[in-house]
From TrEMBL, chain A:
Highest taxon listed in the record's lineage: Bacteria
Keywords assigned by UniProt, alphabetized: Methyltransferase, Transferase
Organism: Tangfeifania diversioriginum
Record-level GO BP terms: methylation
Protein name, UniProt field: Chemotaxis protein methyltransferase CheR
Keyword Methyltransferase: yes
SUPFAM superfamilies named among the record's database cross-references: Chemotaxis receptor methyltransferase CheR, N-terminal domain, S-adenosyl-L-methionine-dependent methyltransferases
GO molecular function: S-adenosylmethionine-dependent methyltransferase activity
SMART domains to which the protein is assigned, alphabetical: MeTrc
Residue ranges of every copy of the CheR-type methyltransferase domain listed in the record: 1-253
Keyword Methyltransferase attributed: yes
Family matches, as InterPro entries: Bact_Chemotaxis_MeTrfase (IPR050903), CheR_C (IPR022642), CheR_MeTrfase (IPR000780), CheR_N (IPR022641), SAM-dependent_MTases_sf (IPR029063)
Automatic annotation (TrEMBL), chain B:
Keyword match Transport: no
GO biological process: chemotaxis
InterPro entries: CheB_C, Sig_transdc_resp-reg_Me-estase
Catalytic activity: [protein]-L-glutamate 5-O-methyl ester + H2O = L-glutamyl-[protein] + methanol + H(+)
One function term, GO molecular function aspect: protein-glutamate methylesterase activity
Domain of life: Bacteria
Protein name in UniProt: protein-glutamate methylesterase
Organism this protein belongs to: Tangfeifania diversioriginum
List of catalytic residues: 10, 37, 130
Alphabetical UniProt keywords: Chemotaxis, Hydrolase
SUPFAM superfamilies, per the entry: Methylesterase CheB, C-terminal domain
GO cellular component: cytoplasm
Enzyme superclass (EC): hydrolase
All residue ranges annotated as the CheB-type methylesterase domain in the record: 1-187
Length: 279, 187
């Protein structure tokens, strides 16, 4: 029986992912296949190559090509106070709980260029909780982390961020937290005092701290079911008893192994609380 | 045997999808996954209206959900919908395609990759160019393609482009499409 063109491409795709893992240590083998295939076929078209097999040769031997390719695979789209309703719900339903803690530790996984991290820091500051909070913000994309550390963003986006901030229940003005210079804004160093930005790969690295709160929004959607479960296990192991897990608004525990391991704090905003018996 | 229908519509699509759905006979339960370019604020009311008035269970597509008969899935606003080989749904916030997110092309292409000839692609009214390339992929990989007749569609640009680019199997008036789907899925 002859194989369909797309089935041959699937074989090539699997071989390519294996090759990348062996050469570079980045493990994309359990990312969403449909998503990977789209990105890879796009790059194929752009670079005038005929088959994924030809591309594999370039990826193994031409590091510059690999760098471009890696960019294709990482989606860093993010914004400040993305899904403002989520932050409003967080303020209302999670903050009261956090207030009772002597010390708060947060793991912000897949933080991309950091806009979300500064959003959380601002929210915590307004609730007078920032001083007693330690935030670990991680991503496996070093370029994104570099931007996150700087805390400098384009002024073009700031109107949207300002709207989001207000909609999220912001208490002052977003401009209280940054200084503008030329076309950029620089977020206040007092916000990042307790933030550590670090390189961490959710697929291949393990638990590195025990935390009260895990923020991992819009990252799991790029993974297949198996990998989602693996990463959710990592979060469960990192969370303290009754720790809180925040996912993206279109992500959920519903079709995973962890559905019955958490109670729901806000079903629409995907805020969960680890059940005491969950390890 | 057809396993699923993918459906795309843009300007004028709310009305067109509603009419199409209401014309499908009760024994037609083949899963349908749709991208409709529609604002964030109207989708909830629209879906619950469709759900109430049809035999399908109409819902927003959820991340990693299995695709099942009797269900009619809509892409959530601002997310692409992709279909995986194991007949589950993935969502993504990748950049816009054809200035659209959700994009019809993304749904159609990934559906074609996983379902080959077990797929029907249907493109309705709209005033942009989304869906044409996706429909072409469906056709190339053995699926059946239907485009709403541009002459009678509410907005003709989208079906017209699709006809040109994908050379669909059928070009039909909206009211004929339900019958064609029934016929094709009964085979
Ligand atoms: C779409 S962004 C989400 C950013 C932010 N959390 C938000 O919701 O706005 C996804 C991020 O996940 C990161 N990511 C993807 N795979 C990863 C992995 N295996 N380990 C760590 N980070 C990963 C990407 O680099 C990217 O920055």
């Amino acid at each position: 029986m002859s194989l369909h063109k797309t089935e041959i491409q699937d074989i090539e795709l699997n071989l390519l992912l294996q090759a990348i893992y062996m050469k570079y240590g980045y493990d994309f083998r359990n990312y969403s296949k449909a998503h990977l295939k789209r990105r890879i076929l796009q790059r194929l078209k752009l670079s005038g190559l005929k088959t994924i097999t030809e591309m594999q040769k370039l990826i193994l031997w031409d590091t510059d090509f690999y760098k471009i390719f890696l960019k294709d695979l990482s989606i860093n789209v993010t914004e400040m106070f993305r899904d403002p309703d989520f932050y409003a719900a967080f303020r209302e339903k999670v903050i009261p709980d956090l207030r009772t803690y002597a010390h708060i530790k947060v793991w912000h996984a897949g933080c991309s260029t950091g806009e979300e991290v500064y959003s959380l820091a601002i929210l915590l500051k307004e609730e007078n909780l920032l001083e007693k909070t330690q935030i670990y913000a991680t991503d496996f994309n070093k370029n994104a982390l570099e931007v996150a550390k700087q805390g400098i963003y384009s002024k073009k986006e700031i109107d949207l961020y300002d709207q989001n901030y207000k909609h999220a229940g912001g208490k002052h003005k977003l401009s209280n937290y940054y200084t503008s210079k030329y076309g950029s804004v620089l977020f206040d160093k007092s916000l990042s005092k307790n933030i550590v930005f670090a390189d961490h790969n959710l697929v291949t690295d393990g638990v590195f701290a025990e935390v009260n709160l895990v923020f991992c929004r819009n990252v799991l959607i790029y993974f297949d079911k198996k990998l989602q479960n693996k990463v959710l296990r990592l979060f469960s192991e990192s969370l303290t008893k009754r720790g809180v897990l925040c996912l993206g608004t279109k992500e959920s525990l519903r079709f995973t192994d962890f559905d019955n391991k958490y109670s729901v704090i806000d079903s629409k905003m995907k805020i969960y609380k680890k059940l005491p018996e969950t390890k | 045997m057809t396993k699923a229908i993918v459906l795309g519509a843009s300007f004028g699509g709310m009305e067109a999808i509603k009419n199409l759905l209401f014309m499908l006979p009760a024994q037609c339960t083949i899963p349908i996954v749709a991208v409709l370019h529609i604002g964030n604020n109207t989708i909830d009311t629209y879906l619950s209206m469709l759900n109430k008035n049809s035999h399908y269970n109409v819902k927003e597509a959820e991340e990693k959900e299995s695709i099942k008969p009797g269900n009619f899935y809509f892409a959530p606003p601002n997310y692409h919908v992709l279909i995986e080989d194991n007949f589950t749904i993935s969502l993504s916030t990748d950049e816009k395609v054809n200035f659209s997110r959700p994009s019809i092309d993304v749904l159609f292409e990934t559906a074609a990759w996983s379902l080959h000839n077990e797929l029907i692609g249907v493109l309705l009214t709209g005033s942009n160019n989304d869906g044409a390339n996706g429909l072409k992929t469906i056709r190339e990989l053995g699926g059946t393609t239907i485009v709403e007749n541009p002459e009678t569609a509410f907005a003709k640009t989208m079906p017209e482009t699709a006809v040109k680019i994908s050379h669909p199997h059928f070009i039909l008036d909206l009211k004929e499409i339900a019958g064609k789907i029934t016929e094709l899925t009964n085979e």
